[in-house]
Amino acid sequence: MHLTEAQQKVDTWIKTIGVRYFNELTNTAILMEEVGELARLMARKYGEQSFKEGETDNLGDEMADVLWILICLANQTGVDLEKAFAANLEKKSTRDKERHANNGKLKNV
């Protein structure tokens, strides 16, 4: 699925099932909450913390929650994520063309 299609699907879902978008500030707070849940899972799965009894290991679902709310914010603020991502990738490719290849810290891994 392309990002444009994902934005359209989320918008349709919000308007038919979700009633309306939460305001941008509320959705920003929800984004922080979802990123925190993802961080907790990463700390448990790849870091030194252990899972609590009953906790599940569903990394994909947590990442999808983050993507969902980010798409909501993009829709609310008029950002075309497909165009923005393409432009961002181009910016990084130009700016960092030699930077990472010349980073000695990355060669010792």
In short:
With 109 residues, the protein is mainly alpha-helical.
Q: What would the keywords be for this entry?
A:
68% helix, 109 residues, flat, mainly alpha
Flag low-confidence runs: none
- Helix proportion range: 55-70%
Order of helices and strands: HHHHH
What distance separates the N and C termini?
34 Å
How many DSSP helices?
A: 5
Strand content: under 5%
User: What integer value in Å does the Rg equal?
Assistant: 18 Å
The coarse overall form would be: flat
**Major sheet:** none
Mean pLDDT: 94
Please tally the β strands and state the result.
0
| SS content category | mainly alpha
List the helices and strands and how they pair.
Blueprint: H1 3-16, H2 24-45, H3 59-77, H4 81-95, H5 104-107
Helix pairs in contact: 1-3, 2-3
Provide a descriptive summary of the structure in words.
It is a single chain. With 109 residues, the protein is mainly α. 68% of the residues lie in helices and 0% in strands. The protein has five helices and no strands. It starts with a helix and ends with a helix. The mean pLDDT is 94.
